[in-house]
Amino acid sequence: MIVRxxxxxxxxxxxxxxxxLPHIAWELVTCMAVATLVTLTHGFVYxxxxxxxxxxxxxxxxxxxxFLGFRNNAAYDxxxxxxxxxxxxxxxxxSFARQVQTLLHFEAPVGPDDANDPRRLAILxxxxxxxxxxxxxxxxxxxxxxxxxxxxxxxxxxxxxxxxTDWLLRRSxxxxxxxxxxxxxxxxxxxDLDQTLSALAAVAALCERIKNTPIPFPYTLLLHRTAWLYCxxxxxxxxxxxxxxxxxxxxxVAYTFFGLDALGDEIEEPFGLADNHLPLxxxxxxxxxxxxxxxxxxxxxxxxxxxxxRLT
Length: 312
What we know:
This protein is mostly helical and 312 residues long. The protein contains 11 helices and 2 strands; from the N terminus they run ααββααααααααα. The chain folds into 2 domains: 11-76 and 214-268, no CATH class; 79-212 and 280-294, no CATH class.
């Protein structure tokens, strides 16, 4: 995610970090080259003059703008829903840590040095859940981080599980059941803890839905084809009216159409490592800081900061 002050004045024209311009440079160069060729030949293809008025471009441009708006709204809805889900994960993680520490009948509160305290292990499992979900959505290896957060036997069990996030929640659910049978937890309060774990499971399932269900491909294909045809034909409709300015006008139109298209492609799947994707590393670090602080630890990890205006 790009984190920086809003640019002003001339800064708007030379900022590249976070811009879609590097992703559509080839499209812009191609469209400008075609427009330049049409301008130099005055719209002639061999001996035939291609004459187009602005009327078809107005109609096609309106339809293309509406279609681009629909697709970008759909992509942004996915991005915003993903951000809401990770806010829910942070909220539920904090709630689970608080419930574990305040609702269980133990003689002493959990401390930072109680390595075998089941309450501490349950809270560390919640930290591990956030990290495991991040790795699952990004398709990266979570084993090293699980070895850092979990006891060795649980880290090995996590590696053997087909769905590590689900295994972590099941393991915490087993602890809740054990506390209930040991009368360390009253039944209504056990239901509250189970509801929190179910909410975390819902967050994982909904993130998987976004990850595994892209916007249907025909939408993207139709948009690309229409934008290319529009930008290739546009110079023939402009050359007799704007003359040598035709390549510049075409470049502005192509930048708008292909830029919106590229931005929609980028935020459609918001869990990756592109400039405008969600900063899952920073959000997982926030969960870890909050829950370790709840355990009474003082040597807390530092929050992640933007590097070069980019927060991962």
